[in-house]
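Journal club side-thread
Mid-discussion, someone asked how the predicted structure for our own chain would compare to the paper's figures. Pasting it here so we can look after the session.
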Amino acid sequence: MYLNPALKWFFVAIALCDAATSALFVLAITFLTDVLEFSGSQNATAVVILLIASIPGGFLLSWWTRRFNQVLYSMMAVTILIINKTLVAGILEGPDQELLAYLFAIGWGIGIGWKWTCDRMLFAAILPPGQNAEFSGAYVFFRQCLSWLPPLVFSIMDESGVSLRWGMASLDIFFILGLLTYFFGMGTYTTAEAETLCTEVAMVERHDEEATSKTTIVCPDDEQ
C-alpha cells in the first residue's frame, strides 16, 4: 500500500484537529454546566444551535473549496475554531452570559462544518486511485485515535484545581499543532493532487481503449 507524503501530513493533521473537535462536544457541556450554570435544556439548546450552524458552514465551504485551495480553507477553518474557543475561554465567566454562549455555539458549528467538509474534499483529492478501501479505514482510524487525549488533559487540569476556562483553552494546543502540520505539508498536497488526477485520466483512457478494442462492428453485408 503506497502512502504518499501528502497523506502522511494529512493523517497527522486530522488526528490532532479531530481529537480536539470531538472533545469539544463533551467538554463544552462540562464547561457550560459548571461555569455558566446551564441546565439540561440550555445545554441541549446550545448543542442544537451548534449542529444547525454546521450545515451552512459545510455548504458554503463546499462551494468555495471547489474553486480554491482545499488546504488553505482547512487551515482557515482550524483558525476560526482557535479564535472562537479562545474567546469562549476568555469571555464566558458567569451564568448571565447565556445569549453570548449561544452566539459562540454558532461560531463553533460553522467552524466544524467548514473543517469536516474541507477535510473530506482534500482527502478525496490526494487519495491514490484504486486504494479507496485501505485509506478510508485509515482515515476513520486517524480521526479517532487521539480522541482520548484532550479530555485527559482537561481532566488532569480540572483535578489539579486549574480553572475550567484554562481547561477549554488547552484544546487550542491540539488545534495549533494540527494547523502547523497542515502548513508544513502544504507543498506535498499539490503534487499529490496532480499525481492522482494524472493517474485517474490514464485509467479512464486505458479503459476506453480496451472497450474500443473489444467492440466488434457487424456490417449489414457481412450478415448476409
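Post-session note: The two ends are 54 Å apart (CA to CA).
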